[in-house]
Write a structure and sequence with these properties.
The protein is α+β, with helices and mostly antiparallel strands. 37% of the residues lie in helices and 15% in strands. 13% of the residues are buried. InterPro entries: SprT-like_domain, SprT_Zn_ribbon.
Amino acid sequence: MSITWNKRLIKTAGFCAYNKRVATPSDRNVRIELSVKVCDTAERVRDTLIHELCHAAVWFLNGVNDGHGSLWKYWAHAACRAHPELPPIKRCHKYKITHKFTYKCTKCGYEIGRHSKSLDTKAKVCGYCRSPFVLVTRGTATPRTPNKFALFVKDNYGSVKRDNKAVTHQDVMRILSSDFARQNSISSSG
């Protein structure tokens, strides 16, 4: 049995995959995949993993592909009896999925969440009122402070480029990188 993270699952919290044509119990194998984007808290990981392990138990121990049928419910109740402090194991999650980007209808206010800037606002319109969408920016995010190397590049890129007019951007970055490494080795040794 393997448990892995899946970056492509954007609405499903996880899934349990197994070969349904295996004849003998010793050949049964299960692969559980958890969504990186949906399972973004320890509680969600725990609850989703328990849900998927109930599917695995049905396959390993009962040899049946039962979906969310009576055998899956049996193992879900068994997990709840063994750990009563856990929330009930449900068939579907009701997680509010956190999206990096939000698009809002300019007329009715309907919002669509996306994990990437994938919505073509010139081609897509609101399904309710046919008005265009706009990307909503989050004003609450604090800007990241640049690291030491980024600040070094910002301060020194122009002078290195001026002193070496014929070199490419790649060569300028290589020079800056070696200068930064040399400066840091001097400051850390002295």
